[in-house]
Design a protein that fits this description.
The complex is a heterodimer of chains A (about 220) and B (about 475).
Chain A (H helix, E strand, L loop, with lengths): L3 H12 L5 H14 L13 H14 L3 E5 L5 H11 L5 E4 L3 H4 L10 E4 L8 E5 L2 E3 L4 E5 L7 H4 L3 E7 L3 E2 L2 H12 L7 E5 L4 E2 L7 E2 L6 E7 L1
Parallel strand pairs in A: 1-12, 2-3, 2-4, 4-7, 5-8, 7-12
Antiparallel strand pairs in A: 5-6, 6-9, 10-11
Chain B lengths: L7 H10 L1 H23 L4 H17 L1 H14 L3 E5 L2 H14 L4 E4 L3 H5 L2 H7 L3 E4 L2 H9 L15 H11 L12 H18 L2 E4 L3 E3 L4 E6 L3 H7 L3 E7 L3 E2 L2 H15 L7 E5 L13 E7 L22 H4 L2 H6 L10 H12 L1 H4 L11 H5 L6 H14 L5 H14 L2 H18 L5 E2 L6 H4 L4 E2 L6 H16 L1
Parallel strand pairs in B: 1-10, 2-3, 2-4, 4-7, 5-8, 7-10
Antiparallel strand pairs in B: 5-6, 6-9, 11-12
Helix pairs in contact in B: 3-12, 9-10, 15-18
Classes of the chains: A alpha/beta (about 220), B alpha/beta (about 475).
């Protein structure tokens, strides 16, 4: 009996009959291994300083708020400042990321640190981005125990630390980084590209923030 | 879902008389077009990216079998499972089998047109499994017992006061005197109601905007975040996608993403672009334990190698319907099946047959706006013409239309006879209409003149005028 798989592939091959199979195989293998870049917009192709500025400006354009600090050591205070300014409970949900774990949290006396995945009861979550994309103000976050994906979606406020040196001009540069970090063709379970807080336009096309994910996304850009 | 495409003309007539619908359609005309134009104007490379996106998809379709195999291999290697489905019924039974073997009772769903195409919700309901739509628009129409009227804004035909009435009717556990007069309060209520559902669900079903052969990833592009909660909270994540969603690499996806959101909503990027690869990894504190992909053909492979192959480049952005004067007038439901607007006019006959969908490619003025805004440069009007030709070849259109076309063809093939006939008719019409400059009724054209007036022609035919102009030119240069 023909399997559905064989039937579908057979129909496709029948429709493509006449094509040179060995040439096709070579073309497909080449594309998959080389992953050629296409058209890269000039917008994000800037020097370091302008690229980081563009990233912050684009993030603000999609209604993120942005704070810039000199080093990771300033992150706990920046987190605390954000929570206080919005009258939020002085608590934060955070994963195991070393870049966040080793910070001087004890300097902020009353801040409660909750470790692990979010259970849906957190008002605010903290993540460390793998990268940023200046062209669109996009954050790139990889799943895992360092930065559990639930933190990106369940808390009402998502605070994301981005290292300025991880801000790339374009998405293709970030994808190259993903290949280096996880191995060519390998991926974390979830890679989130996040561009602003959650929103919906489903009621009469009016854009409202805070649909199912966070109502607010706050970036702390380090460096 | 019930196919009503064969009664398109009646559907359209009802739509034109539907006051609520006409009010809601104003939002389509007002919203989408300007936003898209602004986003396009802000990116000088937009047109070059359209060419790039088109070429990527053309290359993929010409090697679809090989990319599907490569994709399947990567999904399996990352711990996921691929299921192949030739038909809608096959896809439905794979879903049901997954639900039954895992003891699933509730299924949350991210927005997915392919699950509309296979009428999954009705099927699950009938099988005793509760499907819960989580996209706000989809949730609204699920409460109303309706289907999407737009591929990215499923509830675009619904007005705010109607949403309020539906929420009051269904959310009876909430205080009667609550304030639901603002879109914000409506969204808030849906957020709270649905938040609980994500945690209760056994299985989360999403569609896919792209499947990446390089990595075995599925990609969803959304704004609300419901698709993400749908796939990270339940134990099992099931992706249903049609075979043409494949792109070769992450870089290819990055190219097409640049034209997708801009064409759809005028955003540079949608809020959430999520790449999912396999189930949760050892040590991961969240994410699904199982990851399944159902690859659905349902008529796509039959379009390959035909004059409709280019339609398989479609990325479902909705720009064609957002710019279509016919869609603006009648909305999406009149098209009578899942896919409305120009892309639906081409795709529907291919998937349900030209016998049922033949009216759709006729519902076009061929103004060409759809093709001019299509991010994948799909020649939509040309393909609608192909369908009209097929309809004519098969004798599917009504006798009067065929008779009229026959007369036209008779004269069009005989230029001298055509010139003679028009040189008699045009002066008569010109003289009759001279006073008003237009006709408000004409024999045999009542259907046309009912809604607009026909300008009276000049007293001489175009060809006569042209000949005179040429003669003058000749005289002038001699």
């Amino acid at each position: 009996m023909t399997t559905p798989r064989a039937a579908i592939l057979g129909k496709i091959r029948g429709a493509l009959s006449g094509a040179d199979d060995s040439a096709r195989r070579a073309a497909v293998e080449a594309r998959l291994s080389k992953a050629p870049k296409g058209v890269i917009p000039a917008r994000g192709q800037l020097d370091d300083v302008s690229r980081i500025d563009l990233f912050c400006a684009m993030a603000e354009k999609v209604t993120c708020s942005v704070a810039r600090v000199r080093s990771h050591d300033h992150v706990p205070k920046a987190v605390s400042d954000y929570l206080r300014a919005r009258n939020l409970p002085h608590a934060i949900r955070v994963g195991d990321d070393k870049r966040l774990k080793t910070l001087p949290w004890d300097q902020i006396k009353t801040l409660e640190i909750r470790r692990g995945a979010s259970d849906g009861l957190d008002e605010a979550g903290l993540s460390h981005a793998l990268a940023g994309v200046a062209e669109t103000g996009t954050l790139v976050l990889a799943s895992g125990k360092d930065n559990p994906t639930t933190i990106n979606f369940l808390p009402e406020h998502h605070i994301v630390v981005v290292d300025a040196k991880d801000i790339a001009g374009d998405l293709e540069t970030v994808m190259a980084k993903v290949r280096r970090k996880f191995g060519k063709g390998e991926m974390p379970r979830t890679l989130n590209l996040i561009t602003g807080p959650s929103r919906s336009g489903d009621i009469e096309q009016k854009i409202i923030l805070g649909a199912h994910g966070p109502r607010a996304v706050h970036l702390i850009v380090v460096g | 879902m019930q196919i009503t495409s064969p009664s398109f003309k009646q559907n359209a007539r009802h739509a034109l008389d539907d006051v609520q619908l006409q009010k809601a359609l104003g939002n389509v005309r007002a919203g989408f077009i300007d936003k898209r134009q602004k986003a396009v104007d802000a990116l000088p490379e937009f047109d070059a990216l359209r060419d790039s996106a088109r070429d990527i998809k053309n290359h993929t379709l010409e090697n679809l079998d090989l990319y599907l195999e490569a994709y399947e291999q990567k999904v399996t290697a990352s711990g996921g499972q691929v299921h192949w489905a030739e038909t809608a019924a096959d896809a439905r039974s794979i879903v049901l089998d997954l639900c039954r073997t895992r003891g699933a009772r509730t299924v949350t769903k991210g927005k997915s047109m392919i699950t509309e195409e296979i009428a999954l919700n009705d099927f699950l309901d009938a099988s005793g499994i509760v499907p819960v739509e989580t996209d706000l628009g989809e949730y609204i129409i699920q409460l109303r017992g309706e289907h999407p009227s737009h591929i990215i804004a499923p509830a675009v035909h619904v007005n705010q006061d109607q949403v309020e009435a539906d929420f009051r009717r269904v959310h009876t556990h909430l205080p009667v005197d609550r304030d639901l007069t603002e879109p914000e309060t409506l969204l808030d209520e849906a957020r709270k109601v649905l938040r609980a559902k994500y945690f209760e669900a056994d299985i989360g079903i999403t569609g896919a905007n792209f499947l990446v052969a390089e990595t075995g990833s599925s990609i969803i592009v959304t704004n609300e975040g419901n698709g993400d909660l749908t796939q990270i909270l339940p134990r099992i994540h099931v992706v249903i996608a049609s075979i043409e969603k494949i792109v070769p690499t992450l870089n290819d996806a990055a190219q097409i993403l640049r034209v997708l959101a801009r064409s759809a909503t005028g955003q540079d990027m949608s809020v959430y672009t999520t790449l999912s690869t396999g189930p949760r990894r050892p040590g991961d504190p969240d994410g699904p334990d199982e990851y399944h992909v159902i690859l659905l053909d349902n008529g796509r492979s039959a379009m390959l190698g035909t004059e409709f192959q280019e339609m398989l480049r479609c990325i479902r952005c909705g720009a064609c319907m957002n710019h279509c004067p016919v869609y603006h007038s009648i909305g999406g439901h009149a098209y009578g099946w899942v896919y409305p607007g120009p892309m639906g006019a081409v795709l529907t006959p291919a998937l349900i047959g030209v016998e049922k969908g033949g009216h759709l490619p006729n519902a076009s003025t061929f103004c060409g706006r759809c093709e001019s805004v299509c991010p994948m440069k799909i020649p939509l009007p040309k393909m609608m013409r192909h369908w009209r030709e097929k309809e004519f070849e098969r004798g599917l259109n009504p006798a009067t239309q065929r008779w009229g076309l026959g007369i036209w063809a008779f004269f069009a093939r005989r230029p001298q006879l055509y010139a003679l006939a028009t040189s008699i008719v045009i002066p008569v019409l010109g003289a009759l209409g001279k006073e008003k400059g237009r006709f408000s009724s004409l024999p045999f054209a009542g259907g046309w003149t009912k809604h607009r007036e026909l300008p009276a022609p000049e007293t001489r035919t175009f060809r006569q005028q042209w000949a005179q102009r040429e003669a003058l030119k000749q005289g002038g240069t001699a």
